[in-house]
Batch of 4 targets.
Target 1
Amino acid sequence: MGNNLCYQTGERSSLFPQLLLKYEMGNCEIVLTAGPVENEDVECLVIPTDSEYTNIKQNDRPNFKQVNEKCVFVAGNKKRKSQILAIVIDKNFSIKNDDGENEKQTIYATVQEALRLAEQKLMKSVGFPVFQSKDYTTSATIMLMAIKLSLTEQKIKSLKRIAITLDHIEQVSSFKWVFQQVFKGSEQLKHSRTYSSSINTQIDSIDIIQSKVKSNTKEETP
């Protein structure tokens, strides 16, 4: 396991995520932060789970069985933020094919569905943890491209802030690098051909992932 991120503010350790990078698309701000995701300054948190909600407290679980959906919205209260339970932890993830295409499609589709649901529920801001893939560069590329394409292809009006919060030091360099590639263009990249090649390969595969996700969505629609 990696090292958890911890920031020092004066003599005290700050529990609030620290801003790493920010980019504005239209009226929406996309931010990359580091720290405890539960303390992120958002109305709604996306919580990765499985189809049985085994990592969710009994009181927080939805009172119905999840069928062929990727996300469930759980309204918040005075003591807790609203939550979107995102089904991205599944048994078949441990039996990955060589290129992890099924996992990539699941992450991509789930990020877009979570944003659609947050928008539908008129949330102003939503926070994501890292959806783990085979490596952090892949995770970053799929998640950030899913966010970017959601903002360009969907009618996002309510959401004003979308955050991805990192909680391990090993995630930082990959996510910062990919963020700059996806949102700020290749002119920001001057140091690592390895990262650039890997990211470009992942970005090139987004069209294929996108078409497969759309095809699967149509098949699930009754």
Target 2
Amino acid sequence: MAKRRILIIDSQEQDVQNLKEVLEDGGYQVAVAFSSHDGLRLAQDLFPEVVLLAIQSPGLNGLQILLDLKKRGTTRDLPVLILLEKFDEEYAAQGLQMGAADYLLKAASKDLLLRRVGVLARIRQQDRERRDVISRYKGFFDGEQHGLFLSSREGRFLDVNQNLIRLLGYGDRNELLEIDIENDLYFDPQDRQHFRETIESQGYVDNLKVNFKRKDGEKITMLLSGRLVRDEKGGIAGYEGYNVEVAEQPEAEQPLEEQPEEQRFLGRFLKHLVPKVLPFGAGFFSLMKMTELIAERYEKVERLGLGSFGEVWKVRDTEREGRAPYYVAKIPTSKKLNNQFRKEAAICRRLEGHPNSTKIIDVVEERGMVVLIQEFVEGPSLRELLEGPLEKNRKEKILLQLVDIVAYAHKHRIVHRDVKPENVVVRRDSVVKLLDYGVAKELKEKDISSTMVGSRPFMAPEQISGESQIASDVWALGIIMYAVYTGYLPFYHDNEKILMDLILTMEPRPPREVEPDIPVELEGIILKCLKKDPKERFAEAGMLKATIRETFPQF
């Protein structure tokens, strides 16, 4: 076990030596500073358990040192034991008012010195442990992507996480902690009554739909899971949600289904942490998980992504019997994006006849925003696959399917504008799915769209200039083919401006210089896709597909 560190700040060498010997005999590791500068530096560098500060020592401005220690964030919490040459009530009172933990005469006995230092060192250690516990608790509690709250038996919130604050539309934690759960949380008294009657009649609820009330009065539908807990006399003590025991209580009347390990860990974790973090909640209280429903139907399960346009969630259909399938919900950040989301839904529906397109399951509204419900595609992305070796025949299977769906889109006058490995998912059955038509555009009378969209390393020169067209997707396919066969991107730089300059001005290195085993004909196809002038590329992906089939019938 490492020795606990003590720092002595005193200009009197003999006094320092005497103190040092006593403390080292007591099992401490002692550091010494004879000046204000060295004392402040060592306090910051060593993080000692206790600082012994001689505030009456000549040549030291002891009270100023104490003030400086308490002003600095890194040393503010260090316990300081002020040492007095002789008792001076004014000095002692002033030191304690400035934040010293205790005072002691230098002439005090060895035993008294060791006892005082020992108590302060123990307090310091316990304070560190408490801070660590709070940090872990906050990280775990606020890291949970669903709404979580701890409540007392009196019906008050003890703590809420950030997601619940956001879901219910409150400004901050303190504002939500002030509400009365009975009157302010439920949308209608019948919702509260329905919850109570259900859990008290059968002993538990499992994904029960309950309507709650946001701060603005708007209804929000969520799922609650919990079980009834009775006290020793058989009375109702409260509810436990999320299959979590957060206090020592009798067993619930009926357990819920076995939960995943991470949920059981949450229970064990909070059970030990909560009484330390919230000592006023050490008696029974309820921990409940509130899972938001989209359009009162689709349960948010896991957030898959977050961007400037909105959130992407894995969701479960609560109205399907048996094992409900998972879908993907795309939720815009603003109602202003509703038209864009409707256009994306229309594009996806036009492409639904192709096996490599992603299907639209439903289009719903949530708080005035259009939400797309799409099929959930499980499998690694092409980007993930490119991080390891790909068998040759698998490369061709993936690329041909990708080219085929892009060609199908082009046939319907749709340009994707964001074809990249992250948007290509390969299922277990080797079926490729092209995702994210959020920036796709249907071309009608003209072939050029006038916005710069796409992902930089895969953007064609004309896209950088804000003039996307069908041939821009051909460029992106060429970049992907180059990466699949060589393991490298033809254009890349961490600096975005330099990257765009490279795309606009530099010719790609021939693939065979990077990977000599690439067939000459395939190199020619890739380089044709990467012509700076879109008129020199394949006009659309259908022509690229036909050329690949004709040149490599074995694919």
Target 3
Amino acid sequence: MTNGREADGSGAADHADRHGTADPEGVRVDRVMDGLRAFGANYTEFTRRFATWLGLHSTDAAALVEILYAEDQGAPLSPARLSERVSLSSGATAILLKRLEQAGHIVRTRESTDRRVVTLRSSPDIRPRAMAFFGPYSERMAEAMAAYPAQEIQRFEQFLGTLRSTMDALLANEYENGGPTPPAP
């Protein structure tokens, strides 16, 4: 064991230390949560490198990735939805969008019958650059998933959906105002 971690990085010793026994179910939960945390950290690093590659601040790149992803899903974002996705105030989001627009990475359009509604779109020249950067990532992820039967991937999708719903509920309820009340000193 090194720094509370098993040599395999599983966290089994941590779980036993916290709970007094080596609980196989608890160890499994720890391993899954550790894997999700590590994947999230790697994805954050990937986005940071995308930012560096484009010469952007990491928050600007994260916003650009959200805009591109939403377009790919057929549900382009409004500034308000982007603000929610990147956890910025409306004022900070407006400044961020101005930077992205001035850099030529996005355009604001009015596609709704309600002309007050602004839709965020990627500019024509940013999409090929994003595809060049994220192409190898997409290919490797597709290769990794191809090693698993469709039924396993479907169950994993359901599992991720459950985790996301759980996190959404926590954020909307227990953590709505920043988190639980800290214990008294």
Target 4
Amino acid sequence: MELLMAREPFASMSPWYGGYAFQGVVVLGTAPILLPLIVGDATGPAQAGLVVAALYIGQLTAPMFGALADGSGRHRLIYAAGYLLLAVGLGLFPLAQTVLEWFILALMQGLGVAATNTVASMFIVEFRPKAEWDRRIGWMQTCYGIGQAAGLGLAALLQQAPAWGMLASAALMLPGLLIGLLGTPRGRRAGLGAAAAAAQTLKRGASISDDATSRRHAPPRQILPHGHIGPATGALLGRFLADLRSPYALFMLCWLLVMLGTWLIYNLYPLLMQEVYGVGAGVSSVYYAVGAGIGVFAYAPSGILGQRIGDGAVVLIGSLMSLLSVGAMAALAFWQPVGLALLGPLAFLLLPVAWSPLIVAGTAWAAQLSTMNEGEAVGILNSTTALASVAAAFGAGVLASRFGFDAVLYLAAAAMLLGLLLLLPLRRAGSAGASSPG
């Protein structure tokens, strides 16, 4: 199978990846630029940060949607509901007049992102053989990244009329939904044998690997915890807290710090670039699009590189790239050299490129380091990312309103540096753990 996938890389593509790319246009393209512009221009950076935080608060419900999909078997319905929630939240956003209304609509968008992104990953890890995961996830993220680059280009064109941009984003969810349902798995998990189905019935919440041999060495296949929403979430948190001294827990701390630094930059990106470097939203969106476009080509190679040198090493590379980018941006803001309007965006370019190795290898390494099953480990990783996004949105808004956007850059660089320093001894511990049997 691996040889076949290597010879025919496009065999890992599925039609629904194209529809998923439409969501990338909006979620990582137009909305991150236009949403803070609308709220920031009408109120201020603190209020803009609050509304952006609502977007990520909604995404904290990802474990709930994962449990709901597994419990009901309605993966396609939940996946489609995500597009509809996004369409409503985006379409009504320009009509809102108060921070509360914007907050509710941003929260609705976050719920849509959580539903669709969670089930998209489940379509692969619950319905495809483990040997196909890396390449399929790589291609899925590549399509999402292509959508992001296109969305940022669209945002550059529409930043003078952000309300129309949000309406256009809402309209894109219709073709996204129609194409996004093509070829998606129907019903409950496919490819389970009779023995696996019986075991799944006896032990709800446990994933069944493709065969008995791989089960000993491969963690379970779900991306998020199974079971009822309340008990599953509580039990998952309890197991994590009981294992706080493990390499996995330390990795979650490193991940939280790196993600905090990353999202401090992203959450109010157009406002930050305008205030610190004097670069308008149109130009800054173009730079973001270029960086994201380069990053698209790094998703699949990041998975391959992780197989060769280890996922921990790839996470370290991505973290170092992020620190170099944000550190340079902070240094430029401090020294204010000639050509700041050019140097600032150029320093930023590396940050979206670094996202590719971080998210691909980070997901795989989390599953390897954890003593929990894979679904629980990755579920906590996703929740940690969302938690960092929420904290960064609140923090960026408050810091910018009180101390200026320079302070946002300094805090982002400090968080990334601390995360990277903690990652160095962890990589050695993780390598030792990965080489041990069982």
